[in-house]
Amino acid sequence: MRQLFIALALLVSLSSMAQKKQKAPNYRERPKLVVGIIVDQMRWDYLYRYYDRYTENGGFKRFLHQGFTCENTLIPYTPSITACGHATVYTGTTPAIHGITGNDWFDNVQGRSVYCVEDAKVQNVGSTGKQGQMSPKNMQVTTITDELRLGTNFRSKVVGISIKDRGAILPAGHTGNAAYWYDGSTGKFITSTHYMNDLPNWAKEFNAKDWPGELLKKGWETLYPIDTYVNSSSDENGWEETPFSDYGKKFPYDLKGYAGKNYGKVSSTPHGNTLTFEFAKAALLNEGLGKDEFTDFLAVSFSSPDYVGHAFGPNSIEAEDNYLRLDIEMGEFFDFLDKTVGKGEWMVFLSADHGAAHVPAYLNENRIPAGTLSTSGMARELGKELTVKYGTHRLISAAQNYQVSLNHKLIDSMKLDLEDVKATVITLLEANEIVERAFDNTKTLVTSLPKKVREMVVNGYYPDRSGDIQIILKPQYFSGSAKGTTHGSWYNYDTHIPLLFYGWKIPHGKLNRETYMTDIAPTLAALLKLQMPSGATGHVIEEVVK
Questions:
Q1: Are 511 and 68 in contact (CB under 8 A)?
Q2: Which of 438, 447, 444 is nearest to 471 (CA)?
Q3: Residue range(s) in the chain whose domain bears CATH number 3.30.1360.150
Q4: Which residue in 74, 243, 294, 325 could disulfide with 155, CB within 3.0 to 4.6 Å?
């Protein structure tokens, strides 16, 4: 018995010693830097369509082989448009709550069209036009970047960068230290007085190097022999736009004639990605991101895939070459982060603001029904029919974002029945053979629609900034021109997007259950041990936060 007592005492003693040696978990541990990457107009299938050509040290295979990928991430609202997507990723909620209902919308209170980040109360910094009169004031809730700033008593630094103003401003949130975007008229990155009164010296020095002009002088050739591309059989056709027609309509594109004359052209080439990466590197070094105990956030949105995609479509060598180059440059950027911030000290996520439809003419060639709708033409026809019935064509204030906004003041002054006008417009719209549904936006919940579509429409509806009547076109049809492509619908080609995590504390794995764009900000909040953004409706992806 005495021996048993001694053995038990020894066991308890050893257990106590082991517990003393265990390190207590650090519940406030965070990475030095978070990098948020939005690839504008990236369909989920691009991860695998070009997989064989992505390099082992490139960005995409690092995400897939070493990080965590959510294979079925969906946009839970419509319209699937750039500004809505950027706001949703960073707020964790939908347009119905954050209020960014499109790149532009007809504002029912102001009675005019409003640009998503316009702000007449701020001034240009770094330019002379109105390109700098922008801020996040139209976004109604906080972002994950705001919560990071609030959670560290504003010691964390947040910087947003993109060619598009909305791609830089919305991710940086209301409290971001800086947001920089590209002025295509001057070839310089600019900002507004919402952030600062003068560009920092490092940004002025960057602009003085004339990166856009030097990149345009290089032209655009394919990275590999052109006949080895997945999309080589569909090149040189009649359904692509020709944005460089002044100097060439096919590869290799000679772009040096645009240098010093049309700096905006760089956005429609992979050089726009290069320009964005280089400015992001300069910002990181000069702003000292990731250099102290407070987590910093670099939000980068790559706009060039959207410009290239709109012009040439998903089934083009141009789009393919753009992604192959983006992959290589992303890998080089990750190497840069390892050297400057420290390996294992930073984390990154990548997603998209929306996908894209195939070009209708391309689908038609392959016996798939598809086509386009002219929104302006539709509005004109509606005006003619309304004139016949009501004596005026001015009952429609706007037709955009697959919605029709009615002129309520005129309807009231003419003592017309609003419900009768709505019913008339709906009947006229549904007479169009490519319109699948048209219905009163205030009656979506009682409209005969599939549950998923009904929820997406409701999630995109913000009364002051949405139209009276919602239009849903048939699959593979969109509002746009006969060449190139666009996005904006509820269909999967527009709303199935990539979502990948890599770096600090991120487990390696793959998730096949449905996740949503709204889940990104709550997941980041859990990883960073922060409060969720004020309007967040998404959920933490628990598999990422192990």
A1: yes
A2: 438
A3: 371-475
A4: 294
CA 360, 309, 41 angle in degrees (round to 5)? Answer: 105
Tokens at 294, concatenated: 């407070």
* First and final C-alpha spacing in the chain: 45
Q: Looking at residue 27, what is its pLDDT? A: 56
Pairwise CA distance, residues 396 & 341, whole Å: 54
The CATH 3.40.720.10 domain(s) of the chain lie at 33-364+492-528
Would you state the pLDDT for residue 25? 52
User: Domain spanning 33-364+492-528 has what CATH number?
Assistant: 3.40.720.10
Average pLDDT of adjacent 10-residue blocks, the chain of 546 residues: 50 50 61 98 98 97 98 98 98 98 97 97 91 96 98 98 98 98 97 98 98 97 94 74 87 94 96 98 98 96 98 95 98 98 97 97 95 91 94 95 97 97 97 96 94 98 98 96 94 98 97 98 98 98 94
Hey, what CATH topology would domain 371-475 get?
A: Gyrase A; domain 2 (3.30.1360)
The CA distance from 510 to 69, in Å, is: 5
Q: Using CB atoms within 10 Å of the CB of residue 339, give its burial: 0 to 12 exposed, 13 to 18 middle, 19+ buried.
A: exposed
Measured between alpha carbons, how far is 249 from 258 in angstroms, rounded to an integer? 14
The CA-CA-CA angle for residues 220, 223, 228, to 5°, reads 120
The active-site residue, picked from 69, 73, 78, 82, is 82
